[in-house]
Specification:
The complex is a heterodimer of chains A (303) and B (434).
Chain A (H helix, E strand, L loop, with lengths): L1 H36 L2 E5 L9 E5 L3 H8 L3 H33 L2 H11 L6 H12 L5 H8 L13 H26 L3 H9 L4 H12 L1 H16 L3 H6 L12 H11 L3 H32 L3
Antiparallel strand pairs in A: 1-2
Chain B lengths: L2 H21 L13 E7 L4 H11 L3 E7 L3 H14 L6 E5 L3 H6 L7 H4 L8 H8 L8 E13 H6 L8 H14 L13 H11 L4 E4 L2 E4 L4 H16 L10 H8 L5 E5 L2 H8 L7 E5 L12 E9 L6 H13 L1 H9 L10 H4 L13 H10 L10 H18 L2 H22 L6
Parallel strand pairs in B: 1-2, 1-3
Antiparallel strand pairs in B: 3-9, 4-7, 4-8, 4-9, 5-6
Helix pairs in contact in B: 9-10, 10-18, 13-14, 17-18
């Protein structure tokens, strides 16, 4: 009797164990370690040459103050903010329009178009950035060549006034397909009776889209927006790949690039850990804030 | 489940360690000559495995395996991570000269002064100073050096009836003439992507960005000498006769190949790059000494070049040092380095191994005579323990300056570099003078 009871109480934990162990080893432990590192620093004595001249000591919140007061930190945050203001609305707007068009058509052309629009999502960001990098550099860009032939001088995409758009363009190109598929799938799940009812009431395609479809897929829109916001805060691969091609992308162009530079170029993992913690907290606050802001409205549709 | 192989691995490693320590202890220096050891060697030089094959054939007891690396920066990042982790570092490591202070400061390199013996006379003074950091210790053996030289398109120069510039004033004039004759053509570019290139040009002018006074470091990036160099380039960029786009981009490669860039201030390894990027211009390039600040006292700087070091994690220091010595000073090895790995050996005996010019410069039989001369007039330069910080600051500060095309910004960029480098040293706790 007692053994079966014990087995019954133990069983859930047994099933949970693999997930908990993996979570602990590969998520919780690194986060705790990063938190620990962010409070440490290295102290060098004298010339710092030879063994034993380096010791690790407690640093308190020094890494955090250094990170936050770094003159490059705030500009990189603002830059990512501006980048997000371009990417999120453009990408989701485009994805929504394309999803609605595909849903309205439902033809064989639609199947092809859907795959074609989705395909860039399968291209890794680094490869996409290299591809676009070639298209941006005037001497190797076929786009510039074509524009030149019809008498238009293309602006230098990587000059300081255009570089933000150039990077945003890569993200939009790569991300629209995924968001379009998510929204399209949500649209397909809507029962057709609703459209028929609307049509009988005299609604046109545009009105059906605005008054029936969009409100119903609002939860999906919230989710894609949230994912896009998080991706924006973590923008890294595109500017990192384009950096050596231009003068205009610095090594601290985005906060994550600063983390990379501190950790792997300056060998200062302590400052990098502190900045990572700040970014993680900011991501949490923004995601949570966004959900609070729209959550009640978006999900009330479901009840 | 995962624990069992891990534990077994740890046991094996522990056994290996104890056996290694008992037989190859540094202190008694009586390593068993018949002990078989396997060494790993991180290098990014092409065909290094073929050079090493010659060693392996002659030394059955010391087998070296080459682990090809992507390049100097990623290899150092990996090594520092391995050192911090306490395991995973190779026995032998190719290390660029400017990285050695950083690596020594991270306790990544072993001092092989005892094993190296009397190698000093076999290398130019500058290269030897780079591996000893001016101390009694020896942190590696110089492998290759990169004395800077000036490459130019002789066909373009002939057409415009200009000679290879002997001074920087003549270089500026040539740049103006070329850009005036064809507004699309440039004699060169100021690259914000290549701090090593700018450091070499400053070295030529007589700068030395770091210095050691007793037990404190000094930083002299923003000194009068480097300001002269930065001001010169800022002036040319502002005037618009020199391009402001970085090197090593698809754009720059295409420009070399289609004759838009008709000159390149580079180093002895330049032919390999030109061959890869501008194959269609073969036979049109020539090489000369760098233009001079003072024609009466010719000088040059270094761009690139590396040493071979034994890491502090190696359990077979003596054997590793023996290999490193052979690789960089044995005449047969030097011949292989020059001929197979395509590097310019640092050894003073390298002239014997370099009689034929590189294939891309078959039109210039005296290529290596020019290189040997450049190697002789290379000025000394001291690297500090935070070259990485100074160099990444160069990327950002000079990127901004080059984009603005204003000479004043170039001087400001130097001040930014100086500040970032000093702040970092002080922050880490190095003693800093001044």
């Amino acid at each position: 009797m007692s053994t079966t009871v014990r087995r019954r109480t133990g069983a859930p934990y047994l099933f949970l164990a693999p997930a908990l162990v993996l979570f602990g080893l590969f998520l919780a432990a690194p986060i705790v370690y990063a938190g620990y590192l962010s409070l440490r620093r290295v102290r060098v004595s004298g010339l710092g040459l030879g063994s034993g001249s380096r010791t690790e000591i407690w640093a308190g919140l020094e890494n955090y103050t250094r990170s936050l007061t770094d003159p490059e930190f705030l500009p990189s945050v603002l830059r990512v903010g501006a980048y997000g203001l371009i990417v999120v609305p453009c990408m989701l707007g485009l994805a929504l329009i394309l999803a609605l068009l595909l849903d309205a058509g439902r033809t064989r052309v639609g199947t092809f178009a859907r795959t074609a629009i989705f395909l860039p999502y399968a291209v890794p960001a680094v490869i996409a950035s290299l591809l676009w990098g070639f298209l941006y550099l005037p001497r190797v860009s076929p786009i510039v060549d074509v524009l030149d032939r019809v008498g238009i001088t293309a602006p230098d995409a990587l000059s300081s006034s255009w570089v933000l758009y150039a990077v945003a363009n890569i993200a939009i190109w790569g991300g629209t397909g995924f968001n379009m598929i998510v929204l399209y799938t949500a649209l397909r799940a809507i029962p057709t009776e609703l459209f028929e009812a609307a049509r009988i009431d005299g609604a046109g395609d545009i009105q059906i889209a605005l008054r029936v479809k969009i409100p119903i897929i609002a939860p999906s829109l919230v989710m894609t927006t949230l994912f896009s916001l998080i991706a924006t805060l973590q923008v890294f691969a595109e500017p990192m790949t384009l950096r050596p091609l231009s003068n205009t992308i610095s090594t601290t162009w985005t906060p994550l690039m600063k983390v990379y530079r501190d950790a792997f170029v300056r060998n200062d993992i302590y400052a990098a850990a502190a900045t990572s913690v700040i970014i993680a907290l900011a991501t949490f606050v923004i995601s949570y804030g966004f959900l609070k802001l729209v959550g009640s409205r978006a999900f009330s549709q479901e009840n | 489940m995962k624990k069992i192989p891990l534990l077994a691995g740890a046991l094996v490693a522990a056994l290996l360690m104890t056996s290694a320590c008992s037989s190859g202890d540094d202190s008694d220096s009586t390593a068993d000559p018949n002990e078989k050891v396997a060494l790993t060697y991180w290098s990014w030089a092409p065909n290094m495995d073929k050079v090493v094959a010659a060693w392996n054939a002659a030394h059955p007891n010391i087998q070296v395996t080459v682990n090809k690396q992507d390049g100097g920066d990623p290899a150092v990042a990996k090594l520092l991570t391995a050192i911090k982790a306490g395991s995973g570092a190779p026995d032998i490591m190719q290390a660029e000269y400017q990285k050695i202070p950083t690596l020594v400061s991270a306790d990544a390199l072993a001092d092989i002064a005892k094993e190296a013996g009397d190698l000093k006379a076999k290398f130019p003074e500058g290269a030897w100073a780079a591996v000893t950091l001016g101390s009694e210790a020896v942190y590696g053996v110089p492998q290759d050096s990169g004395p800077m030289m000036f490459y130019y398109r002789s066909d373009v120069f002939d057409k415009l009836k200009i000679k290879a510039p002997a001074t920087w004033d003549e270089y500026a004039d040539a740049a103006r003439t070329i850009h005036k004759a064809d507004a699309k053509q440039y004699l060169g570019t100021f690259s914000s992507n290549d701090p090593g290139w700018f450091a070499g040009l400053s070295q030529q002018a007589g700068a030395s960005w770091w210095g050691v006074n007793g037990d404190s470091w000094s930083v002299a990036i923003d000194d009068a000498t480097t300001q002269k160099v930065a001001g010169y380039w800022g002036g040319l960029v502002q005037e618009g006769v020199i391009d402001n786009k970085p090197m090593y981009t698809p754009e720059w490669n295409a420009a070399l190949n289609d004759g838009t860039q008709v000159g390149w201030l580079s180093a002895v390894w330049g032919p390999g790059v030109l061959e890869g990027n501008a194959a269609s211009t073969k036979g049109k390039w020539k090489v000369a000494q760098l233009p001079q600040w003072d024609a009466a006292a010719p000088a040059t700087g270094n761009w690139g070049g590396s040493a071979t070091s034994v890491t502090s994690q190696s359990k077979h220091k003596a054997q590793a040092a023996e290999f490193v010595k052979w690789l960089n000073s044995d005449p047969a090895a030097i011949k292989l380095l020059a001929g197979t790995a395509n590097v310019y050996p640092a050894s003073v005996d390298s002239a014997a191994a370099l009689t034929e010019p590189p294939a891309f410069f078959s039109n210039q039989p005296d290529f290596y005579a020019v290189a040997a001369e450049a190697s002789k007039i290379t000025k000394p330069f001291t690297y500090g323990p935070n070259v990485n910080v100074a160099y990444s600051s160069y990327n950002d500060a000079f990127g901004k300056a080059a984009e603005s095309k204003k000479a004043a910004e170039f001087a400001g960029a130097l001040a930014t570099m100086q500040q970032a480098t000093l702040d970092d040293l002080k922050n880490t706790g190095f003693k800093v003078a001044g």
